[in-house]
Amino acid sequence: MAKADAQAGRSSDRQRLISGENVRRILQTQGILIAFILFLVAFSLSSDRFASFDNVSTVFRQVSIIGTIALGVTIVVIGGNLDLSVGSLLSFTTVLVVDLHDKIGPTGAILVMFAAALAVGAVNGLLVGFARLNSLIVTLGMLSAIQGVTLIYTGGQNVDIVDQEGTWFTFFGRDFLLGIAVPTWIFLVLAVALHIVLTRTTFGRRVFAVGGNPTASAFSGVRRARVVFSTYLISAAATGCAALILGSRVMGSQNNVGQGYELLVLAGVILGGTSLLGGSGSIPKTVIGVLILGFIQNGLLLMGYPYYAQWLVTWVVIILAVWLDVASKRGRLFTTTS
Amino acid sequence: MTPVAHHTQSELDDLKAKAPLLVLDGVTKTFPGVKALDDVSFEVRHGEVHALLGENGAGKSTLMKVLAGNHQAERGQVHLEGEAIRVANPLEAKKRGIVLIHQELSLVPEMTVAENIFLGSLPTTALGIVNWRTLFDRAGRILDQLGCRFAASDKVDRLSIANRQMVEIARALVFTPKVVVFDEPTASLTDAEKVVLFDIIERLKEQDVGIVYISHRMDEIFRLSDRITVLRDGQVSGTLKTAETTEDEVTRLMIGRSLEGRPAAAPGAIGEVALELKGLSCGDLFRDVSFSLRRGEVVGMYGLIGAGRTEIAETIFGLRTPDAGEIRVHGEVVQIASPPDAIRHGIALAPESRKEQGLVLGMSCRDNMSLAQLEGVSATGWLDRGAEQAIYDEYAERLALKSPSWRTPVVNLSGGNQQKVVLGKWLSTRPEILIVDEPTRGIDVGSKSEIHALIRRLAASGIAVLVISSEMPEVLGVSDRILALYHGRLAAEFDAASVTEDALVQAISGM
Lengths: 338, 511
Ligand SMILES: Nc1ncnc2c1ncn2[C@@H]1O[C@H](COP(=O)(O)OP(=O)(O)OP(=O)(O)O)[C@@H](O)[C@H]1O
Ligand SMILES: [Mg+2]
Hints:
The complex is a heterodimer. Helices cover 75% and strands 2% of the residues of chain A. By secondary structure, chain A is mainly α. In chain A, strands 1-4 form a two-stranded antiparallel sheet. A two-stranded antiparallel ribbon of chain A has the order 2-3. In chain A, helix 4 (53-78) packs parallel to helix 8 (182-200), helix 5 packs across helix 6 and helix 8 packs antiparallel against helix 11. Residues 1-16 of chain A have low confidence and may be disordered. By secondary structure, chain B is of the alpha/beta class. Chain B has 3 domains: 20-97 and 177-255, P-loop containing nucleotide triphosphate hydrolases (Rossmann fold, 3-Layer(aba) Sandwich); 104-175, no CATH class; 273-508, Rossmann fold (3-Layer(aba) Sandwich), CATH 3.40.50.300. Chain B has helices at residues 9-18, 60-67, 90-95, 113-117, 132-146, 161-172, 191-206, 218-224, 247-255, 309-316, 339-344, 354-358, 365-370, 374-377, 385-398, 415-427, 445-460, 472-478, 501-508; strands spanning 22-31, 34-44, 49-54, 75-80, 83-85, 98-101, 179-183, 210-214, 227-232, 235-241, 273-282, 286-294, 298-303, 324-329, 332-334, 347-350, 433-437, 464-469, 481-486, 489-495. The longest helix of chain B has 16 residues, at 191-206. Chain B starts with 8 loop residues before the first helix and ends with a helix. Chain A binds chain B through residues 1-3, 5-7, 9-10, 12-13, 21, 24-25, 200-206, 208-209, 212-213, 215-223, 279-280, 335-337, and chain B through 32-34, 55, 57, 88-91, 233, 255-256, 317, 319, 338-340, 342-343, 349, 351, 356-363, 367, 371-372, 374-375, 378, 381-383, 393, 396-397, 400-407, 425, 446-447. The structure holds adenosine-5'-triphosphate (ATP) and magnesium ion. Adenosine-5'-triphosphate is lined by residues 31, 34, 36, 54, 56-62, 103, 402, 412-417, 442, 444 of chain B.
């Protein structure tokens, strides 16, 4: 009897695709996506330039740096940890790649820069994964440590690439492929790659398991420390990619360019709906979250508001989005027990 | 308040008998993909213990959660003492005197026992500051009343699961309760603690409190209850007077058939030694433990909670490091430093606590089931969804798992069905040595005998099985040999066919 029920449950899965129930489930799970679409429609109605190809591709290009970093951070967060070191790591790696460009050439500069990024990720990963220290503290400490290292490295000076015409290094930040900016390509290709890693590989499954329940994962033979370690390597590598875009676009760097990026990145991740508690979330969600940030900024500028209005609006949007998400899950706006 | 003066005592008793304390009428509740309750009516009288029975996922917990305000029903009414009430949340329910003691514990581990008991209603001084003295005094009195042997100032995370359960019960007694619901309260209690619990229930009964008692243990139900209501697939399949019915009749109402007797052991199938422990010790958890486990054999490990059974299992599985002794697998000494090592040696451990150790609650049933063998379903690092689905389909069927679909997060399954996912996860690794710790905790009688039969079949196919259990009928029914543990030492070893219950009880209590 129970067996028959279980089977009926399984096959009815396929049968009723469009039922009221499924509509409700889609509303509940895709709340952010729907909000995003409504938001786009509202902005396009209020400004005809908003929905133009040029404007949309500008927004994609603008969010590519934050977005690329956010992809890596998403994986750390799903694994149940935080990475606040990405902002100052972005400063450091950008300074490094720009500075070394003229000294050892673009190829060497890029290789050294990625090696440095991975080293930082490895330290984070060792401390959080193997030594089991709290990720907030470790990466917050790393944030200021790298700031220090960057200042020591530059001696407080800004760095520049002198010969900006004669190098292929401009490719990453300034070129276009098939009419789409290279930064956008980097962001989207990395998004697809990491999405595949998260959803199609055993590593991805382990990230979800470790973030969802570390004890049960250990009991299942998942090596938590290794998984966490790898998530930090991914985050650092993604930040390295962002540094490539940033350094190549500006062809120079201040030693604090990445300041505050960690919070913007986290805002994008949360806005997309990845839970800070770990164990749930996705790359497409983060892409949407980051795009929402980008479109708000862009929309407000188009409507003539000063650029700092976006900070306030971003906060409001984050609260609304998270609230919408929680409310749709419990079926009402406020809890009844408070 | 003085009692109503113009009724004689017998008239009052009559009135009480006529007007039930609590009536649930036509309750319907659906979750995505399941109709958990379908037009359920149920009543509890003053001073009555009303047992609620049914298979895993029949809707017992859901019905009680509707009553206690954790869930809102789509249809149906609740009457308390003749008055229609709407309960929007658990606090409101408590204030009306309806208390639910959950199947899954819900304490704050970092806080003291007293704070947990009075959570949400901490006694305060005039200044609004917590009045610690009153808090500890009042909590202490409740604990005394329950006969608990821990202090109100102890931190909850230091307590055993059984003692946490006691705290949960103590919490119910803060509000003068009219209806107390116990959802599988004895799943993790020792026999001594059960006696205390049954005393408490008797006392509540004398105070005219109505009690709903959910359990899968027939002996308790027949010992405690006055009436039994059986739920099946979200519908009431009958309400019976306990005195006028039999276990068999109740079972048939529940699962539509009678249970077969003891699963037949496969005689003569026992082969060479698969696992051997020699002088294994670990701190003061257990000392000098030696035994062997043969292919085709089921060995029961029996002992009180805290005797070191779980710790031995965890050491074999690489979750603890022994100080002395050796572990041999198929005759060779092995170093098992972590669960992956154990899994590589063909060892599986289905752990004791499904919520903490067994499951990633937010993950789907299918993904939980394949978690212990990700290498197995994909040699290359790419997930093989087809292989995962095949595992899920096979074990959902073999264990009669009741889940709306493979993608349902396990957190939405009933307690017993969660346990089945844990079992499925480990059985599907096709281990050579299978250790199951309290395998049928929270599992209904029908599935329980199916799981016992499955364990026997696994053994017959050449697997060595170690069954850890606090339930005597379980160890007696399923094992070939029984190891009795007392205070971290192997006290005695018995042949299951000839041992008496008395001998077992003596061995595990150090006599
Ligand atoms: N929060 C929830 N979301 C979705 N489905 C749920 C939820 N809670 C329960 N269910 C479903 O409702 C049905 C009844 O579950 P319930 O927990 O009431 O069973 P039960 O009779 O208490 O079983 P058990 O003996 O295993 O504890 C099950 O099919 C379960 O999967
Ligand atoms: Mg239940």
